[in-house]
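Field notebook, page 396. I keep forgetting to write these up properly, so this time I am using the form the group agreed on. The chain and the ligand, pyridoxal-5'-phosphate, are recorded exactly as supplied. Prediction of the bound pose follows.
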Amino acid sequence: MPTIAAPASTSSKRLALSALAPGTVQSEIRAMSVACEQMGGINLAQGVCDTPVPPPVEEAAIKAIRDGHNIYTRLDGIGRLRTAIAAKQKRDYGLEYDPETEVLVASGATGGLHAACMALLNPGDEVILFEPFYGYHTATLRSLRMNPVLVPLDAPDWILVADRLRKAVTAKTRAIVVNTPANPSGKIFTRAELEAVAEVCLEHDLFLFTDEIYEYFVYDGAQHISAATLPGMRERTIVISGFSKTFSVTGWRLGYVTADKKWMGAMSYFHDLTYVCAPSAFQHGAAAGLEQLPQSFYTELATAHQDKRARILAALTDAGLTPSTPAGAYYVLADASKLQGTTSAEKARNLLAATGVASVAGSAFFRSGGGENLLRFCFAKIDDDLNEACARLRKL
Ligand code: PLP
């Protein structure tokens, strides 16, 4: 995996990397995955989600390839999938989106966020995110020369302090990003918290970008609330989600954005410019999943992951890596104080060397100096691998 470094021997000022490039490094998450593969370890680092693909999804994608759906689609995706996404938003949240003008099938939630930032924000704009944050959110913004402003949530339950949010708003603020259920904390924003965020958005005329990719990964009866449903918020909320996690197809690069038609044209244009369209055959797979999978599929997904959560929590507790219990998503943050190393990156590498289990350094999710005593473990693994990882952790 190449890392980007300034070339050593070039005298030309033109034959040079961009101003941003020398500051970029491979994400700690990917770096740990590479280190894990090199030593044949069990990867609880990256949220790759290697649980099986639901059969209707898999079969429809294969059939689509055989049926010749291998060419560019409309820039905002095939009609069948846009219709299915609109129906899903109505079914799950009562949100009405016109599949012709208000749904963008994106190249992953990641591609959706990129297109939304290109379409709606300008270089120099400030965007508020909550800390701990998902690194792609901050990195995407920086890559587009926008400025992430971090508002810390209060551990251990990652509570939102509304006053702190208000104080972070400046004349340059254009948007707030809410990821619920959240990576890495597993936090599920409560209605009251989302109302506090909405109030700030309405008061200061801000966009709200919601990353809802873990919408079905909710535990202990918790409920995911889509912030676009709050009064006055539909117009300004850019809902971003996808199929990577729900259908275990992280490599298919398939997500979506639903938003008011005022914003959708520009978002679709910028998505087209970078990705042209989301992978066409896979769009048919996702459409079949949305059309055919019963409601029980989604509840069973949550139940299965709640069970996996219980196993990893018990193993981490036994290993002396005290975990905090996530309310949603599929990651656990655990206290790494007992591991050797001065930084969480060193601790993660020492844990990998000692047990063959890869985790991610907590520092990947906090501003510089934060998260150094935390490690993040992903539990969206097939049972054999998760059980083996738990057994290895217990031997620590
Ligand atoms: N958003 C969050 C919060 C994630 O944790 C991830 C993957 O880990 C993604 C988005 C990536 O989504 P996609 O694969 O649809 O680009």
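OBSERVATIONS:
- The two ends are 30 Å apart (CA to CA).
- The first strand starts at residue 42 and ends at 43.
FOLLOW-UP: compare against the apo run.
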